[in-house]
Amino acid sequence: MSSQPRQLVFDLPLRSARGMEDFFVSQSNGAAVELVDRWPNWPHWAAIVVGPEGSGKSHIANVWQSNSGAAAVPASALDEGALDLLKQHHALLVEDVDSAIADERVLFHLLNLAREHHLTVLMTSRLAPGALHVALPDLRSRLRAVPLITIAPPDEALIKAVLVKLFADRQLLVEPHVVNFIALRIERSMAAVNTVVERLDREALISKRRVTRALAAEVLGATGDNGEASGADPDQHA
């Protein structure tokens, strides 16, 4: 008879996101979390959170929006109405300034308005301000003066912690060595973590098997010495 799978324990703070999905704090997102915590006592009237796709910057930005009561608008939809939103809410989230800025003059005026009236603008981007394609010289200068907060791709500890949480959310008991196996073989992004957990849950249900290293290897397509997909499964007991 097999024993119950052991559970990994992580020394990572778990933060409640005011009704949104909980998230863990690690070295990769710690500076951005600190930014959220410090609001409204920011030393500057604006900030830009930069990170690759899947790093969690939108999640962090949504938490800030919830805490601050900010309005939100994608950079690709910026128009004069955004100025009124900033005046009404005293805080504005401008998302994805790397993808497209519909009206560069509006963003420039937003940043000036925030500075002059002690309002707050938070922007998100996959690229640092210096790498953005901005035609308006005054806006380029203003963006480079805004404090930059970087979110790195999730580190290994964060990947493992989120894997454990998502497995638990689906009432799947998974051995620590299986979590370690998965964490070492997936892309370091929250999207990849969610995808692999969903795929493993579905495959386990279809095949009526536990989530073991062998099943993980099959789902991930791992083979050879790294995957160890063939041979006896150490999690299967007679």
Can you put this structure into words, describing what you see?
Helix 6 packs parallel to helix 8. The chain is of the alpha/beta class. A five-stranded parallel beta sheet has the order 4-5-6-3-7, with helices on both faces. The model is unreliable at 1-21 and 222-238 (pLDDT under 50). It starts with 13 loop residues before the first strand and ends in an 11-residue tail after the last helix. It is built from ten helices and seven strands.
What's the topology here?
Elements (H helix, E strand, L loop, with lengths): L13 E4 L2 E5 L5 H9 L7 E5 L6 H12 L2 E4 L6 H9 L1 E5 L8 H14 L2 E6 L11 H9 L2 E3 L5 H14 L6 H8 L6 H18 L5 H8 L3 H4 L11
Parallel strand pairs: 3-6, 3-7, 4-5, 5-6
Antiparallel strand pairs: 1-2
Helix pairs in contact: 1-2, 6-7, 6-8, 7-9, 8-9
Give a brief description.
This protein is α/β, with parallel strands linked by helices and 238 residues long. The protein has ten helices and seven strands.
For this entry, give a set of tags.
single chain; 238 residues; alpha/beta; Rossmann fold; Helicase, Ruva Protein, domain 3; five-stranded parallel beta sheet; two-stranded antiparallel ribbon; 7 strands; 44% helix; 13% strand; elongated; disordered N terminus; disordered C terminus
Task: Give the strand order, joined by hyphens, for the main sheet.
Answer: 4-5-6-3-7
Q: How many distinct domains? A: 2
Largest sheet: 5 strands, parallel
* Span between termini: 7 Å
For the record, what CATH class of the largest domain applies?
A: Alpha Beta
Write down how many β-strands occur, each being a DSSP E stretch of 2 or more residues: 7
Could you name the CATH topology of the largest domain? Answer: Rossmann fold
Shape: elongated
Estimate the helix proportion, in percent.
40-55%
Structural class determined from secondary elements = alpha/beta
The CATH architecture name of the largest domain reads: 3-Layer(aba) Sandwich
Question: What is the H-and-E element order?
Answer: EEHEHEHEHEHEHHHHH
Kindly state the mean pLDDT as a whole number?
85
Which regions contain 5 or more consecutive residues with pLDDT less than 50?
1-21, 222-238
Radius of gyration: 22 Å
By CATH, the superfamily of the largest domain comes out as: P-loop containing nucleotide triphosphate hydrolases
Task: Enumerate how many helices there are, as a single number.
Answer: 10
Strand content: 5-15%
